[in-house]
């Protein structure tokens, strides 16, 4: 009885693993990229997104200022963080406020080099 139970559990584990691998392989074959669906925003949409991003940037800068004030992060680190956020905003602005989602791996490597 124990052998039967163990073999059933083993078989279920193998089937589950195989199904999981096939689903992940199928997802890897069809990457979703920004270039596949070209989106054109109107000037009104761009302005609305610009205002939202500016509000976010201002709030994040306030947050960083508080962290510096409370001694959680150094003043130098706070300045670097603010600088990176401003660079990010400029890139978004250049791209018409459409984020570039297909470059995350490259950006992560650059981010790791800076820290």
Polypeptide structure, described:
- By secondary structure, this protein is mainly α.
- Helices cover 75% and strands 0% of the residues.
- It has helices at residues 2-29, 43-69, 75-94, 104-114.
- α2 (43-69) runs antiparallel to α3.
- The longest helix is centred in the N-terminal third of the chain and has 28 residues, at 2-29.
- The protein is flat, with a radius of gyration of 23 Å.
- 0% of the residues are buried.
- The mean pLDDT is 78.
Provide a compact summary of the structure:
The chain is mainly alpha-helical and 115 residues long. The chain has 4 helices and no strands. It has helices at 2-29, 43-69, 75-94, 104-114.
Uncertain residue ranges: none
Q: Beta fraction of the residues?
A: under 5%
Specify Rg, calculated over alpha carbons. 23 Å
Compute the number of helices.
4
Mean pLDDT: 78
H/E element sequence: HHHH
Ends apart, CA distance between termini: 57 Å
- Percentage of residues assigned to helices: over 70%
Tell me, what's the shape?
flat
For the sheet with most strands, the description reads: none
Structure summary, number of beta strands: 0
Structural class: mainly alpha
For the structure shown, list the relevant keywords.
single chain; 115 residues; mainly alpha
Layout of strands and helices, then pairs:
Elements: H1 2-29, H2 43-69, H3 75-94, H4 104-114
